[in-house]
Structure formats: structure tokens, C-alpha cells
Amino acid sequence: MEPYALSLGAAAAEIAARRLSPVELVDSVLRRIDATEGAINAFACVTADLARAAARRAEEEIAGGRHRGPLHGIPLGVKDLCDTAGVPTTSSSKVREGNVPDRDSVVVEHLLAAGMVMVGKTHTHEFAYGAITPTTRNPWDVRRIPGGSSGGSAAALAAGTCMVGVGTDTGGSIRIPAALCGTVGLKPTYGRSSKRGIAPLSWSLDHVGPLARNVRDCALVLNAIAGADPLDPSTLHAPVPDHTAGLDGGIAGLRVGVPVNHFFDHVSDDVAAAVRGAASVLEGLGARLQEVTIPHADAMMAAGWAIILPEASAYHQEALRERGDLYAPDVRLFLEAGELVLATDYLRALRVRTLIQQGWAEMFADIDVLIAPTVPLAAPVVGTAMIPWPGGVTEDITQALVRLTLPANLTGLPSLSLAVGFDAGGLPLGMQVIGRPLDEATVLRVGQAYECASDTVGRLAPL
Predict the structure, then answer these.
(1) Which CATH number describes the domain made up of 255-452?
(2) Does 173 participate in catalysis according to the annotation?
(3) Is 415 part of the annotated catalytic residue set?
């Protein structure tokens, strides 16, 4: 097996045992980038020289007895929304062409301090305002989209061109591409990790989190990035546990909610079968399945868009007036639409969100986690605009892709997406595990239990 094909945990073990050096690992990943990037275009820029220099430093530190831990020497892809000192950060937009920050975003600062090696900046749907990432292709089938907005990070992971991807998630932007590209993606609790130094989309819904090959790798990264930031008032002042400590504790007796509404409406047969099959696996491991009704389901999408649209437009207002022609047409349309949302409608949406949060809190009094499809279908073909459903119903592709992920943003609850099957064409299918506030440990434990009982998690695309 080539080093690039290892998971974070496996590579870390080899590095710790001195059987693999960070230089060898990074060189393997850079060769893989050279071999696949022409087909995938996951990276906005590749930082090969910086990566090789950082790998040499890591190798010297480890040889000198200064091993920083399991992330030391591990290749990292950073979403182009996140500031990186001395490296272009454009949000995959012509609006920010040539922008080179002078300091790292907090999440990048934490990961580099843990010894990770950045190999490049991964593409995002422009300013994270979309679920497609049109610059990038899906490694499982290059005729298809990777999802978004963290599509570059997910595509790079699936192609073997990084071992960890930094992502952001406002309506599903970590979990959607994780599901479509067959990786694992974790949206932590709102405020669990600092967003300072990351271009906002919708500040009251934005989250930052990891994408990785498997559940344990996500837990290792969360350990490094979680915690309060005194300069980001949205972060929570709460203890940060070791998220790997109870991963293998099993799920016997755990109450797993299976929704009877919303999450299985307008979902492909393949996705529904894969998720219900995963539920049976969890039940076989001792979990107790119980049906639940999602509260305020009919209000969730309207409330979400009524918050995202004006918050995004407020952030982009000046740039839209001065350089509006530089935005992609779909993003510009969203930004112009956001200017038309009345303040009274925005305030009503915030009140509805509070009702949704209260309803979900009551639902979680009777369950420990909720499982549901991440997205309603496998990766669509590039250029698809509408998704047909039985009965002559069609749905806009962006609406379809965010419909099942947006609830966890509105509620701020932690949500993990992992692969639970493949369709007839070999495309991955995702399930999300949603938990209580700050209970990433239980969400990860459920994901780990499923991963260990199946063979669907951690596969590289056969590119």
C-alpha cells in the first residue's frame, strides 16, 4: 500500500514507530496530487514547497524526540475559505483574487501547532454559498459533482490527496460532500470550534469541522480544534474531552431515534435502504431503535433560508456593490435575493428557529442520537439543475442537497456523516448521526460502532 492510501491513524502509528517518515508520506501525497488533480481539481492551490519544508521539520523534530502527537507530519487540505498566512485565500472567488492573509485562521493555527503539514488549499463553492463546488469533480465518477460547499476537501480525501480536510458547514457543507464522496465528515456543536479567520456565510449558522477517512480520524482532529476562543464570542466555554477515549465503548442500550417524517420524504430507494440497513446493524449491536416525529418539520427550510439569505448579503453588501460582476451568477443571485428579505421576516425566522430548537430538545429527552440520510440521493451528474421525484415532483438541486442537513445547523447540534452503502453504480451513500449539544463523543461512538461492523467506511475512490 502506498503511504497516501493510509488513514490518519494508520499513518500516525507508522510515523510513531519510525517505519514511515513525514517526508516519505508527504512526497507520496504530492505524487498522488500530480496523478489525480487534472481529473479532480480539488485544490485551489497546491503548496508543495511549503509542505516539503514542513515535512522535513516534522521529521527532524520526531527524530529529536519532540513528537507532538498523532497529527504530527500528517498531510492536511484546508478549505479556501480559511485564512492561511502567506498563502492565497480566495474563497474560490474572483472577488478575492490575490488575497494573501498575514496570519492563519484559528483552526489552521491549531492544526499546524499539532504538527500537521498543509499540502494545499481545497476548493469551495464560491464563498461557501452552494452545495455543488462546480470547480471540482467527484473521484468516484468524474462526471459527477462532489457536493459542497467543502467539495474540494471531500474530493481530495476520496482521491487520496490529503488525510484530513478542514471544512465549514452552514447548511450541510461538510456532510453533503462527505456523503457524496464517501468520506466521514463531522459538523460539531455550534460554537465548539473557533471560526475566527474564516470568511462567514451566515454567522449564526456557520460551523467549522473535520473531514477524514474514518471516524477515529475525525475524533483526533476534533481534539485539536475544539475549545473556546476569547476573540470569537460564538465559541462555547465548555470542557473539551478526549473524543477518542470512549470510541470503542459500544452502543448497547443506546436509544437511537429513526424519524417517521421529513428525513425519508423524497429520498431515493437506494439511500433509504442503505440507512435502514445501517439502523439494523446498530440494533444488532445492542442499540434500541425507536421511531420519532421531527417537530416543526414544515418550517425548517423556510426558516433556514430566511436566516442565511440576509446574513450572507449583509457580509457581502459592500463587495456586491463595488465588484458584483466578479461573483458567479448563482452566488450573485442569492446575494441580491438576500437584499430583499425584510428585517421583520428575518426576526420571525429567528423566533421560529428558537421553537425548532426547543422542539428538538424535547425530542432528545427520549433518544440519545437521531439517525437519518445525509442527502436524498447519490452524487448527481454535473450540470443537473432539477431532481425528479415520483409523482411528477421536481426539486432544485441545491434545495434537495441541503434539505436533510440544514436541521442540524438550525439546532446547532453535532452531526456526523459516514458512508453506509453504495448504489448500483458504485456511488457512496451517506447517513448522518445527530446528537445532543456538546455530545460529539456519543455521535462519534455510534459512528465508530457502525464502522467496525461494516466495510463501507474508509474506502478510497477507485480513481
Answers:
(1) 3.90.1300.10
(2) yes
(3) no
